[in-house]
Structure formats: structure tokens, C-alpha cells
Amino acid sequence: MSERKYAAASIGPRIDSLLRPILTSSGFHVSYTIHDAEPTADDFETPDLVLKFTGPDVDLLLANRAELLLALEHVTMEMLRMPSEDHSRISFDANDYRLLRIEELRLAATTAAEKVKRTGVPFRFNPMNSRERRVIHLALRGETAVRSESLGSGPTRQVVVYPAGMASLPEPPPRPPESRHGSPGGHGGPRGPRRDGPRSRTARR
How much is the pTM? Predict the structure, then answer.
């Protein structure tokens, strides 16, 4: 077994000092345990440390594809100053969400591979984070008729499944920065109505 880089004994108190005030002040009725992950034969996710939530408000953490659960996980990783290549070493979970999501991604990868074999046309997944892209790549590693590759950057990075031997699609051009008037290049139309809250993006599901 490889050396455990993140252990509950060493960083558990730091995680607890971050999460407990957040959950208390927000009024969520949940509790959690932090423990070292057990080794498994499945290499789709091999975390060092697992944090599991329980309680009556767990469903709120898991709403919208576990948006809040993953946000808490991300904030914790930022607090710990974890490099991106280590993000898979810590896993936040509730009601076996991780296992169910991995199975969903594996099925999606198999379905995409069959479609590419049948049509000869590359298949693009919606953008996803690095951990979920890794599951897609691992699910297709035994395929000989197709191959997978990540395309794009940042939050728009996605997995593309190609017929084996087909050249990669070109990387999409970077988006031009928005001007203060809300349009690229600084010569847009009139400004829209003012919004007092933070700007939001609509993600494609």
C-alpha cells in the first residue's frame, strides 16, 4: 500500500475547525465522522481520508448532484492548500453518493463507447471535475476500439471519446474577457438591469 499522505489524526482537527462553525451557523442538522479510508480492490477512487455525513439534513447536501457536499469538500481542500493532483485523496460522502456516482459514470462511459463504435463519431461529455473525468478514463482503459481524452480548460474541461486512431479535436479558443459593460471587447450594447447578488452561471447538466 502506498504511503498515506493525508491522515485523519494529522488533518482531521483542521478540517473539524473549518466545518463545524460553518454547519452550526448555517443551521444544518448533520453530523460527520472523519476516518482513514480502507484500501479497496477498486481503483476508481483511492482516497486517503473519508468524511461521511449523516443526519436529517443530508438530503440538502446531496441536492443538485451533491452541489453543497462538493462545495464543502472544495473549500476544505482550499483551506488545506492541497495541490490539484491530490484532490482525489480526500472524499466527502453521504448515503454512498460516491459509489452511486461512480457507477453512473461507468455506465455513461460504456454507453458512450458503444455509440462511438457504432457511429464512428466522437462523443463529448458535459464538463466535469478532474475526479469524474478520471473515472471515465479508467472505465475505458480496457477498450481497444475507442480512446478517451480530456479537452478544454478550467470549468469547461470535458472528456471526449474517439474512435481509436482518430485525430484529436482542436482545443477550443479561450473565451474573450468581458468588459465592464458585460460584453467582449468593451463595445457592447446597453447595460442590463443591475443585480445586487453575486453573478451566477447556468451549468449544463
Answer: 0.72
